[in-house]
Every structure is written in structure tokens, then in C-alpha cells.
Here is the input.
Amino acid sequence: MSTTIETSATSLLRFATAGSVDDGKSTLVGRLLHDSKSVLTDQLEAVEHASRKRGQETPDLALLTDGLRAEREQGITIDVAYRYFATARRRFILADTPGHVQYTRNMVTGASTAELAVVLVDARNGVVEQTRRHAAVAALLRVPHVVLAVNKMDLVEYAEPVFAAIAKEFTAYAASLGVTDVVAVPISALAGDNVVEPSAHMDWYGGPTLLEHLETVSVTTDPSEQPARFPVQYVIRPQSGEHRDYRGYAGQLASGVLRVGDPVTVLPSGHTTTVAGIDALGVETDIAWAPQSVTVRLAEDIDISRGDLIAAGATPVPTKDVEATVCHLSDRPLHVGAKVLLKHTTRTVRALVKEISYRIDIDTLEQRSGAEGLAVNEIGHVVLRTAEPLALDSYSDNRRTGSFLLIDPADGTTLTAGMVGEAFDTVRTDADGEDWV
Here is the structure.
């Protein structure tokens, strides 16, 4: 029976926020930072000054987050902004993502490493098209926890039936996407109800405030539940002095646990050996767990280079044929026949876009076949052929080793984010239905 390994990472929560235009997301983030006392005095004074210049009597907390000049002028969030704050119970990294449909790629970027997503809904409008889009993106990225924050409850007289109806509709839709952990919280970001402090206006609600849930949601993971995956970043071989016989492989453990004596397989070559030693910060240790950065020494002298994968447990079969769900990030469309670079962990190889099987209508989840290309923000399913074999896990099994990027070989621009496998376990379909090395 495995024992949960306690690490400092268990006190850190990465979460992303998403909401439709004018749902009050920037105000919510500002309120969260303000009421948790995570705002510096000079920042608050600057917001108060800017608010007075606008003729507002109270500070506009949205100004704490919409930091770009273009955002302030337009009154919208247009880029991902990362906020760092902490309470006595937990540290947080918040990815504040845009709500506009044309910034779907930004939400994908912000939510890709999140353990929790806060989806904001205006209580007056309920679940709208963008709400379903945000839920679908969270499901696509396998974000394990979702919070539905029903905002502007003060504008519907804090009515419980309004909240209950929205929560029921959203929870049912999320469940159809495979998202089962949904917590709904009725809030007023403007007034501060149930954001950090419990609301005096909603005594019918007996759940946690938003911050309380963020502080207590379980993100403790047992690394031993996943097979060990160690992408080699750098080969250390001094070849001089007293360490001339030293040969180690440095990198960050992407998942799982490695112990001295563990049998491992080096991919894509398939050579097998055992772990002879592990060095962490120059000190020998018997064990390492994700996401530690360590140097691994092996019992056999095997030809290993940057980009190889040292794996334990059930190992993936290296392949040159990759099927994946992708979100296109570039303004330049992705077309069938495009020659790209595929970056997977520390390995970068040439690849060819053989097929775009279908485009996913993220609003209806229908598969639209016959697509010759993917435009910016579009999500689809592609088939790639790589010049060299890759050891890929399914994204649903391992978010780190099941994801990759497609890069323009001409200028190094990131084109597309990919996730190995199908987007959803069940997906609706419409009526439609050469190797390069």
C-alpha cells in the first residue's frame, strides 16, 4: 500500500478564473486580493486615486487586475495575468484569463497548469454560451476542480431560487463533459458577499465562501499513483578530475516517484536498467518525486541524450504517429501538409500535419468534419507524423507527458497546443463524417 508523500507543493494552489464579458471577473479578483489583504498600500492608493478621477466614490477593485493600459481604456481583460498571493493556510497562483470568445487561446494557456477553475456567471443572465465554452475548455484541459461563482446576487435580491436554478443547469452541463467536482457559490464581488467573508444577506447558503473553498480544496496528490516519467534535460559527464567517472542525467521529474534500485526503461531506445543513484542539490538521496529537479544515475552506461525519457512502471510505446486534440494559438492558420516542429517535454522533433480529422464546435461539442485548416482559437483533432519516435502518454492519464507544442520551424513561433488523445470521452458528431521523415 502506497503512502502519500508530503511535499511543499501541497500548500500551493494554481487556479484560473474565467467569465463572460461584464460578469464582474476583474472585480471578483480585485475583491479577493483586497479582502484577503494581499494588496500593497501604494497599489490601493493608486486605485483609489484612479477611481476618484473617474468620479467613483468607492475604489474600483477591477483596476487591481486590469493592469494593461488597453484593458483599462476598454474596460475588458485582454490577456492572461498571473497574480501571486497567500493566506495563512495556502499560497496561490491565479491565472486571470479573458472572457471574450476571441481569446479562447488565452484561457487555454492560463488553465493548462491549473488545478482549479473559477467560472463566473452573472446571476441576471444565468448560463450563457460563454459559460458553456469555459466549462468545455476546463473539461478539455482536465482541470480537476471547478467552482461556479454566481455573481451579482445583490442585483437579483439575493434570491435563492435564482442561484439554485443556475447551479443545477451548470452542474448538469459540466457532468455531460465528464466534470464531476463542481462547487457553486453565490457571491457579490462588488459588495464582498461570500468572497472572503460570509454574506449577511444569504443566510440560506450554508457552504464555504470562495476563499474558504480555495484554501481547503484538496490538491494533495500521491505521486506514486502515477508511473514515473523523467525527461532528460541535460547529461552531466565531467570527464576530468575526481568526478571523471560520473555520469548523471539532470531534469525535472514530470510524474511519479523514482527510488534507487527501481527498474527503468529509457525511451525511445527501449534499453532497460536500474536506478543506481539520485542526487538532489548535490546531496545523495534514495527517493525523488514529482515535481522535484534531480540528477539520476543509472547502473548501465547507456547512450542517452537530451529529450530521452527515463520511465518506470507501465511505459508508453514510442510512436511516430500522433493523434491529438489541439487548440490553435497563432493568427497563422494550421493547414494539412504543414511542416512543423513538435516539442514534447525536453524533446523537439520535425513533424508533418497529415490530417485535420475534425474541428470541435466548442459551444455545441459537435465534430465538424472536412476542415482543411484551423484558425486562431479553434480546437480540433489532428493526425501528425513525426520524424523520430516519441514516448507519449495519453493526456487524460498524464497532463505533463501527454501534452506538446507545435512550433514554426522558420521563426520559432508557437503555433498550437496539443493534448494526446480525444477531447472528451463522449462527443457529438455531425452528419459528415503519406509519411514525412
In short: The domain at 8-216 is CATH 3.40.50.300 (Rossmann fold).
